[in-house]
Design brief:
Oligomer: heterodimer
Radius of gyration of chain A: 20 Å
Helix content of chain B: 10-25%
Number of domains of chain B: 1
Number of helices of chain A: 1
Structural class of chain B: alpha+beta
Order of helices and strands of chain B: HHEEEEEHEEHEEE
Largest interface: A-B, 40 and 43 residues
Number of strands of chain A: 8
Distance between the termini of chain B: 54 Å
Shape of chain A: elongated
Chain lengths: ~150, ~220
Amino acid sequence: MELTMRILSSAILMLGLGAGAAQAADPALEYYGNSLLCKAQSSGAVCDLWLEPSGRYSVFYDSGQKAYVKGVEGDFENEGRTGTYTARATRAGLKLCLKPDADAPPRPPGHSPALFHEAGCVVLAQHPVGELWTLRLGGETYRMGLISGR
Amino acid sequence: MLRHYTPIAPALLALLFHGQVHAQQSDPLADYYGNTFVCAGGLDGDDACHIWLEKDGSFVMFGGMQGGHHGHYQVGPLRSDGQVALCLYLDTTGIDIPPELEARHPGPPMPPPADSSAAPGGPAAVAGAGGAPPGAPPRAAGFGCDSVNFRTTCGPGHGKPALDAEGKPLPLARAIVARFHEGMCYPMGGQKLGDHWVETDDPSPSQGGKDQAFLIPGHR
């Protein structure tokens, strides 16, 4: 009986350790339930990126300009995208690779470049929730911040 | 033996298929699921909100209100115009966005404090960017919205003030989120994917009481 209890305790402990390690190994953990915001300094366009533990993401844009709706294929001031991502911890930070859903259309002509819009990878330096930082990418400067909540 | 059952199987399949089609057609929101509802100002046509409605009762909404937010909705009774009243409830009261990361046009200019108890009205007006539209009635103190029996009415004397913990009026983008947290109901449904229409039964008098609406494919 005592042996059984010992084995059970060890098994429970190992399970707990395993779960803890798996959790610590998730490099995107801090992003779940929070919002990664960005603001392009040249255009004022803002984005809001959500990462889900399922490997899905959503990103929302406000172009910061008055792009009036012209029709169903309209040049919308606001735009959203969904897709799948992979995240990997690197020395430089979180390497985030995004793959938009196939049905997501290209960014309308005339709109400023937008972070996380096309398929590709971005390395995000590690910063605590609430801290702002600057990211320079593709000739654009972005102010960035992982903000608590959604 | 098999020959006896062969005609029954296709008949059953046909019945099943017919049932599915019928069920889909009877849901006035069928074309909304998995796609994007866009609302825009009835007068100025400005893109004001995007809603991703899901069949499970949840939605995501963004545009003019601090990025995206999750929410849930309730569907009211079918109306004579084939639409249903859809009441949208954001699951959040908003997030604290540093000014450096705020959108340039989070919404119409802030009304004076006495007028800041609520956003001005329907999806386009509530979430809209830009200034007061031409022809919009002047706002009176205490403008807000009430929802009763799946119908939201906005105007002077309606609703309660959207205030922060210190009792000060919330910034407009945050006030809009607070308003949708309380619940806002709009007529929706009955349209097909690719439709562009004008909704004239907007609860708000701003934007001429109208919204331009679009149903576009996918999540955009």
